[in-house]
Amino acid sequence: MRVAFISLGCAKALVDTETMMGILKAKGHEITPEVEKADIVVINTCSFIEGARRETEETVREITALGKKIVLAGCYVNRYRSELKKRFPGLFSWVSTEEIWEIEEAIKGKVIPYKGLYLQDAKTPRLVSTPPSWAYLKISEGCSRGCTFCAIPSIRGPYRSREIEDIVQEARALEDQGRLEINIISQDTTYFGGDRGKREIGPLIEALLSGTDRAWIRLLYLYPSENLHEILPLFSEERLLPYFDIPLQHSDKKILRAMGRPWDGEKYLELINRIRDTVRDAVIRTSVIVGFPGEGPREFDGLLRWIERARFDRLGVFSYSREEGTTAYPLGDTVDQREKERRATVVAELQAEISREKNEKMVGRELYVLVEGKTPEGVYFGRSHHFAPEVDGGIYILGEVMAEGFVKIKITHAHTYDLEGEPK
Ligand code: SF4
Q1: Cα-to-centroid distance, 221 and ligand 1 (Å)
Q2: Could you give all domains of the chain from N- to C-terminal order, each with its CATH number?
Q3: How far does residue 143's CA lie from ligand 1's centre (Å)?
Q4: Ligand 1 nearest atom to the CA of residue 191, by list position
Q5: What is the DSSP string of 367-384?
Q6: pLDDT on residue 377
Q7: Ligand 1: distance of its center to the CA of 350 in Å?
Q8: E strand segments, 190-310
Q9: Residue 221 near residue 186, CB atoms below 8 Å
Q10: Which residues does the chain have with pLDDT short of 50?
Q11: Whose CA is nearest to atom 2 of ligand 1?
Q12: Predicted TM-score (pTM) of this structure
């Protein structure tokens, strides 16, 4: 069969899509990028907030209008399995994230019942879809934190870590494919091994560094905890990128408690300063939520002042989405949507200023850049350790370089989120 995939949602969902594509290809099916030419379309969905659900529903409507058979996969299935027939009467079949290994049965029209929690391993076929220079590597599934606003634990189940040797085996396979950057992902990377009653993020990093030769290792989705302090010395190893993606969500102690999050804004600043003091050229990315119940003008102003002091290198801002089944749901939705969006804009504008000032300080520096390829305009594009794939900007290279690999670039211009530079 000719199968097309549409992958919505996060990087973890993308790895699920790549796994389903790998399984079908290994069984002799053709994976086509063109929906029009496909016999069947698999839509891998997201459902953790209202906006993501709307995108899923719109995509199903669009593909249905093309007269295509649809297999619905992913988190929307996990969350609304019992209502799918009512919500999408024309659906051909569906698989949740726990049944992706049965995707072939699903494209034959079989609806796969729930059989328990699933965790992929290095033996599972996977068709990596990211640019040839880099890939994601998922180290666990689910989450066991209790953030009150978050539906992911109820969608993806409790945290379960893969085996370290199994993860290293997959990292080596990715490196053998020519991937020069391996982005470690999970719902909570710092907690790795916690479901086994152990702190294993440190041993995992050491095993990845000794089990691979030349690829950059980047950690994403870190959680503010003691484990994070413990692994800081490991960043003296050059291939472990000094990039810290730590969603902190807010700075106000009362709001953080209501969110079920640890520490407070001052303790977070201590962590950030410790990282910057300990790790050379460290880059800190975070994300915050505005409009959570109880966030009045004073709390919001406090958040702005905190962002000014923290001067994050990268910051994403989300408006609170009240989610059924979460512990925060009974708190209601006290900040109206327009006000949430106004606050999100104020935060984004503040961060744009900080980002531009920081980028201007990069002019004149010489950086190691991983070339990703050419833009549609024919300009080479790449990223140094300062930029994570897909969520951050990058570096436009003015001049000829090798089409892939690491090159040295001298930064000549700064923009709000991107840089420009010339080959050295
Ligand atoms: S750490 Fe919190 S926000 Fe992140 S997936 Fe787990 S419960 Fe959700």
Answers
A1: 9
A2: 2-107 (3.40.50.12160), 134-360 (3.80.30.20), 366-423 (2.40.50.140)
A3: 6
A4: 1
A5: EEEEEEEE-TTS-EEEE-
A6: 94
A7: 25
A8: 216-219, 243-245, 283-290
A9: yes
A10: none
A11: 147
A12: 0.96
Residue 402 is predicted with a pLDDT of: 85
Residue to mutate (ligand 1; options 10, 152, 248; most atoms within 8 A of CB): 152
Nearest CA to 365 out of 382, 384, 352 is that of 384
Q: Which helix (H) or strand (E) holds 292?
A: none
For ligand 1, atom 5: residue with the closest CA = 187
State the DSSP string of 23-85.
HHHHTTPEE-S-GGG-SEEEEEE--SSHHHHHHHHHHHHHHHHTT-EEEEEEHHHHHHGGGHH
Pair of tokens at residue 404 = 């892939």
Res 404: pLDDT: 84
User: Within 6 Å (CB) of ligand 1, which residues are found?
Assistant: 143, 145, 147, 150, 152-153, 187-188, 223
* Structure tokens given for 254: 């009362």
DSSP track, 329-348: GGG---S-HHHHHHHHHHHH
> What is the rounded CA–CA span in Å between residue 11 and residue 129?
11
Q: How far apart are CA 388 and CA 14, in angstroms?
A: 16
Give the model's pLDDT for residue 118: 87
Q: Cα(110) to centroid of ligand 1, in Å?
A: 32
